[in-house]
Amino acid sequence: MFEEKKVNEIKKQRERWEQTTLPNWVKQCKERKGEFRNTSNMLIRRVYTPEDIAELDYMRDSGFPGEYPFIRGVHATMYRGRFWTMRQFSGFGTAAQTNQRFKYLLKEGETGLSIAFDYPTIMGYDSDHPMGNGEVGICGVAVASLKDMEVLFDGIPLDKVTTSMTINGPAGILLAFYVAVGDKQGVPREKLGGTTQNDNLKEYFAQKLCIYPPKPSVKLTTDIIEYCARNLPRWNPISISGYHIREAGANAVQELAFTLYDGITYVESTLERGLKVDDFAHRLSFFFASHNDFFEEVAKFRAARRIWARVMKERFHAKNPRSMWMRMHVQTSGCTLTAQQPLNNITRTTIQALAAVLGGTQSLHTNSYDEALCLPSEEAVRVALRTQQIIAHESGATNTIDPLAGSYYIEALTCEMEEKAMEYIQKVDDMGGAIVAIEKGFFQKEIADSAYKHQREVDEKKRTIVGVNDYKIEEECPIELLRVDPKAEKEQVASLQRMKRERDKRKVDAVLDKLRSVAEKDENLMPTIIEAVKVYASLGEICEVLRQVYGEYKELIVI
Amino acid sequence: MQKARKIRVLIAKPGLDSHDRGAKVVARALRDAGMEVIYTGLRQTPEQIVETALQEDVDVIGLSILSGAHRTLFPRIMELLKKQGLTDVLVFAGGIIPEDDVAEMKKAGIKEIFGPGTRTETIIQYVLDNLPKRA
In the predicted model, is pLDDT for residue A477 greater than 80? Predict the structure, then answer.
């Protein structure tokens, strides 16, 4: 970026500064720590100068927004054109209750929906399955059949919203419910927009909501990518997720590297179906966490875009620039929120959200201040949404594109982030790929070690968490907590059982038989799943057939 | 002199949620403190938890749950422990357990509940101080 002569002069001047000006200051005011490190354990220098980015070639490594390597943003206008999508993850109780919450959020200015499902739904059990006892509608909304999905979107036209669904093992079934609701509303399939998370790999080492073993799970993920490439042009079939990897304990570099590796694996599995990379890569989307170390996070988002662009171009020979875009959703970090002095979480969320915006995200969820205690109350959700609106309209951060570019620190950190992530990617390549790494417990061990290290640092007060290990106060829980009415479970179970009595059971049995044979033949399951949900086969029934064909995953325990 | 028996702890995750970060950190901290820790993984039914406690002859059980199903599952686990005669086992819990539920859970027999932000040393000390006397 700079002439060699000038860089040499700066180096000389820095050395002089370190020998003359600095020592007196250090004597008077000793530095707080012997060394400063970010969460990824990178050593942070005292001050950054052009020396630290001397190797950077502007047109090769940065370029312009909307152009390769897309580090400055995937769009040429970014937030000067349109803000990111403000998308708040929500769902609890019955479909009817969540339908009300959705309508509230849309009225308050939210621009996209995001469904949180309850655990029985996520694990592929109907609401009346014994494993779901006490869990129905608690952490999300129960959706066990097309009937529930119809209620969930009652009065919400699917051509007017986009919907994100946090669902993995049963992703194909939930997508089928959505397609079927769209068909009923008369919305053409090419107009259906949204995202299924559908990232099964990270389940084995991060989110850990796995139903089947890894290989059939990757097959199911790939079925959806293939089906969408051919039938649902506006649907993001997958949201390749680092969020859960990070929340499980990974540091920022591990989050970045493992997520990108999962992405690489899905590109490979889809290429094996005979699709060309440019037929589907433009619909792949990503999902990251945003934590408290502001600059580390901004650097991570920027590095992610540049690595993905390079991987798509160099490793997979994509031609269409859109195949090289990394479009991302970001959620502020749940595990950084504290149960102590919960209002402080508003500040944490603001810092994290601003990092996501300065990192160039396409979509954002801001956590509510009460989430270390319970599901968010209406007031807490509103404050979270307002945080995004304040950043968008008042902060000025959205007036120019990628405003932190060119900072010696940010650019140096971005490069280091890329380098460290590429080392991990090489390591997993050498190991034989993501599934081998999962089977060996590699990702699991890396994450567990980082999580333990973090907790040690907090316990030993090497890392200050305000309100937790310092600045503590005696307090009663100062906020009103949302409680899900336990009646929701009873109502949901009764309504599901009523639906099961009223439907045409012969049709259901026939389509489930067909599903079994399609699964055994290893064909794409999506068309048959859509057929099945339309005759009201339930989520649990469909998953049960697949459990019988594929078997169930047995957890590899790594402490 | 007979070598002292290590304290045996079962760390168990009932319920369907998969937030095992806390459970694993606590398991490792107790192990590093010299205890014998058995961690059985996610989604253990109350029956499985009690069966493991019996088989492994544990002194202590730590339950971790963040799904909100503790109101159904904790009393069920305590009831099964009683049925098996495991009334002298020390049971503590952690996760997201709202303040309002704590009294009810303690009434069911959970001796202590550790919320988010608890130091691992606090849990280790708690176990040492409250260890049931074994015959």
Answer: no
Q: Pairing state of beta strands A112-115 and A85-90?
A: parallel
Picking from A355, A351, A252, A346, the residue whose alpha carbon sits closest to that of residue A304 is: A252
Q: Is B99 on the interface with A (CB under 8 A)?
A: yes
| Nearest-angstrom CA–CA distance, A24 and A200 | 56
Please write down the long-range contacts of A504-508, taking CB distance under 8 Å and 24 or more positions apart. Answer: A504/A535, A507/A535, A508/A532, A508/A535, A508/A536, A508/A537, A508/A541
Tell whether domain B8-130 is in CATH 3.40.50.280.
Answer: yes
Using the beta-carbon criterion (under 8 Å), do A555 and B41 form an inter-chain contact?
yes
Per-residue pLDDT reduced to its tens digit, A398-456:
999 999 999 999 999 999 999 999 999 999 999 999 999 999 999 999 999 999 999 99
Could you tell me the domains of chain A?
4-58 (no CATH), 63-459 (3.20.20.240)
Average per-residue pLDDT for chain A = 95
**A168 in helix, strand or coil?**
coil
The distance of Cα A496 from the centroid of its chain, to the nearest Å, equals 31
Q: How far is B36 from chain A (nearest CA, A)?
A: 13
* pLDDT tens, position by position, B95-126: 999 888 999 999 999 999 999 999 999 999 99
Model pLDDT for residues A251-275, shown as the tens digit of each residue: 999 999 999 999 999 999 999 999 9
Q: Answer whether B16 sits within 8 Å of A455, measured CB to CB.
A: no
Query: Domain extents for chain B?
Result: 8-130
| Residue carrying structure tokens 């700066």 | A10
CA nearest to B12, candidates B76, B60, B83, B71: B60
Nearest to B17 by CA among B79, B86, B64: B64
User: How many of the other CB atoms lie within 10 Å of CB of B51?
Assistant: 15
Determine contact: B103 vs chain A, CB below 8 A: no
What is the ipTM metric for this complex?
0.88
Reported as a single tens digit per residue, the pLDDT across B1-22 is 556 789 999 999 999 988 999 9
> CA dist A225 to A17, A195, A439, Å?
56, 11, 24
* Bridge partners, A235 (sequence order): A194
